[in-house]
Design goal:
Shape: elongated
Largest sheet: 4 strands, antiparallel
Structural class: alpha+beta
Number of helices: 4
Strand content: 25-35%
Number of strands: 4
């Protein structure tokens, strides 16, 4: 994480219909989402103003809604979707997302399967005068 400051949400449980197999799409299964958003929290701490941070309740609701919608084959795709939501907040610097699929169709006993991605916000572009007369 960029500054060392972060907001972490763990264990967001969502029933969804992602998966490669038809039975996964038809019956659905639980997915568990963990995310840590890198954010500079100094301004929020000094001002005690929620508008100076990322409202984690709103973030959790948006993540849950995105995971529940539009079924895809891969949990990698779900993770990318969640990262995009987190990085849509202007204060977000970077994000680490883990998508767990505890009921994945694996033929051997296992405790969990998950993918983790790390993404950074695009650097803010400053307008240039290049090409102007």
């Amino acid at each position: 994480m960029t500054t060392g400051d972060s907001i972490t949400l763990t264990g967001i449980r969502v029933r969804a219909h992602h998966g490669v197999y038809d039975f996964e799409r038809e019956g659905g299964q639980d997915f568990v989402i963990d995310l840590t958003v890198g954010i500079d929290l100094r301004r929020a701490a000094q001002s005690d103003d929620v508008s100076a941070t990322i409202h984690y309740g709103e973030l959790a609701e948006r993540v849950a809604a995105a995971v529940a919608s539009d079924p895809v084959d891969l949990i990698e795709t779900v993770a990318e979707r969640v990262a995009g939501i987190a990085l849509s907040y202007p204060a977000a610097l970077d994000v680490r997302v883990t998508v767990h699929k505890p009921d994945a169709p694996i033929s051997v006993p296992f405790g969990d399967v998950a993918v983790t991605i790390v993404r950074s916000a695009a650097p803010h572009q400053t307008p240039t005068t290049e090409g102007r007369a």
